[in-house]
Specification:
It is a single chain. By secondary structure, this protein is α/β, with parallel strands linked by helices. The chain has two domains: 173 residues, Quinone Oxidoreductase, Chain A, domain 1 (Alpha-Beta Complex), CATH 3.90.180; 138 residues, NAD(P)-binding Rossmann-like Domain (Rossmann fold), CATH 3.40.50.720. It is 28% helix and 26% strand. The strands form four sheets. Strands 3, 4, 5, 8, 9, 16 and 17 form a seven-stranded mixed sheet that branches. Helix 8 links the parallel strand 13 and strand 14. Helix 4 packs across helix 5 and helix 4 crosses helix 10. The longest helix is centred in the middle third of the chain and has 13 residues. Keywords: Metal-binding, Oxidoreductase, Zinc. This is 2-deoxy-scyllo-inosamine dehydrogenase. GO terms for molecular function: metal ion binding; oxidoreductase activity.
Length: 349
């Protein structure tokens, strides 16, 4: 049996091809892919601006339905699931230390090996997670980016009543704001785009700021001072990957505070050697997640209205190139784009 696959063969070039349907190995399940959401990494790969090799079947934010299993996992047949795309080696120092999200030989479906722009994917049964009843499949595909936001929030060690500043109101920043507010944290959010900043209020932010040169301006600083008793936020989540934003994070965070860097770029940042020791800051990185997709599904299920705000565009599988063009066009404001895979309409949401 064969299936249709969209393969990125070169910069901004897709080829739709017929390939053999994957054979399921023992311990694996075969999943029919129903919905794939796009992120910035997908666009970088499509533009051949990412440290991976083409050709590649992209797609790593995946939701579908299980169609084949081992006999002892028959309970999964017909279940709607989300796939954890992270593939760790299990034997390196990080894996042995219980941190496979930073495995030395880390791979990710759709980023470093073929992923979900295919009608079927075979994966270990341990890497699929049931979608809660009532959560639409397309929203469930957001569980992977939600797990990334949850990892950053978990790294920040939030406590109810603390004040956190989220820098960057893209999907990861918004989902981090939602997760922080869900834990009883008072959330401030900032972005260079006024519309994106305002959107954060729907994700639990009590105050939002538009970032401009000289941020924060006098009025914004007064608001921060009033809310934090002139101490600054105890937590800052940096979700842009912009060097100046990390500088702002270190400058604005309270003494003894925690800064989590989840935004990624290849650029360098300059910090004073006094900043970290004088304020005794915890400067923490965050990558992927430590098995937090189930918690991500739970958060999305309990905050479905906010989650649905993220899905701003939908494209058919055959129109995947148009979806990437929309992502790349600064004149088209996009949140998350969902790709509806073939036969998705035949499976109940």
């Amino acid at each position: 049996m064969t299936m249709r696959v969209a393969r990125t063969v070169a910069r901004e070039q897709l080829a739709f091809v017929e390939l053999p349907r994957p054979e399921r190995a023992p311990g694996e399940v075969l999943v029919r892919i129903l919905a794939v959401t796009l992120c910035g990494t997908d666009l970088h790969i499509f533009e051949d601006d990412y440290p991976t090799e083409l050709p590649l079947v992209q797609g790593h934010e995946l939701a579908g339905v299980v169609v084949e299993t081992d006999p002892d996992r028959a309970d999964l047949r017909g279940a709607r699931v989300v796939i954890d795309p992270v593939v760790a080696c299990g034997v390196c120092h990080a894996c042995r230390a219980g941190r496979p999200n930073v495995c030395a030989s880390l791979s990710v479906l759709g980023c470093y090996e073929d992923g979900g722009f295919a009608e079927f994917v075979a994966v270990p049964a341990t890497r699929v997670h049931r979608v809660p009843a009532g959560l639409p499949t397309e929203v469930a595909a957001l569980a992977e980016p939600t797990s990334i936001a949850l990892q950053a929030v978990t790294r920040s060690r939030p406590q109810p009543g603390e004040i956190a500043l989220v820098l960057g109101c893209g999907p990861i920043g918004l989902l981090a704001a939602l997760a922080l507010a869900d834990r009883g944290v008072i959330v401030l959010a900032a972005d260079t785009d006024a519309v994106r900043a305002a959107t954060a209020r729907g994700f639990g932010a009590s105050e939002t700021f538009v970032v401009a040169p000289g941020f924060p301006d006098a009025a914004q600083q007064r608001t921060i001072d009033e809310l934090t008793d002139h101490a600054g936020p105890i937590i800052v989540i940096e979700a842009t990957g912009v060097p100046a934003s990390l500088q702002n994070a270190v400058r604005l965070v309270a003494s003894g505070g925690r800064v989590v860097q989840v935004g990624i770029s290849t650029r360098t940042v300059e910090l004073s050697m006094t900043d970290l020791p004088y304020k005794e800051l915890d400067l923490l990185g965050s990558r992927n997640s430590l098995g937090l997709i189930p918690q991500g599904l739970d958060l999305l299920s309990r905050h479905r209205g906010a989650a649905e705000q993220l899905l701003t565009h939908a494209f058919a599988f055959d129109d995947l190139a148009d979806a990437f063009a929309a992502m790349a066009d600064p004149a088209v404001p996009t949140g998350k784009i969902v790709i509806r895979m073939p036969l998705a309409e035949a499976v109940p949401a």
